[in-house]
Amino acid sequence: MEIPVTGFVFQSDDSDPLHSHQLFITSWDGRPLHVHQFQGTTSFDMGHRHHYAGTTEPAPSGVPHTHRYFTFTSVDDGHRHEISGVTGPAITLPTGGHYHEFRGTTTINGVNPHSHHYSGQTSPE
């Protein structure tokens, strides 16, 4: 089974012998792809909190979908945590477009090992 994919490849200027190419997919099976921004602040634990921001992985528009996400928190109290997961399903906005909710627990890190909780909503499509 073949799935039509469109996009483009970004090539470096070849000044680095270990260069790589980036592939940007713009549609999958005839549907345009989109991403969302997300940001927030973790729970206050062990005397501090962390900030985070990132962009979800692309997903097709116009169909039920979720997005995977991954980022690192800010460095606070000498350490940072990883945040990753999958958003909830698309929630339609009355004015058009949609957003997603996300929530989870960071990785464990710090001199006194601990994690933080986080939750929020992505930017609208």
UniProtKB/TrEMBL annotation:
Organism for this UniProt entry: Sporolactobacillus shoreae
This chain's protein is named YmaF family protein
Superkingdom to which the source organism belongs: Bacteria
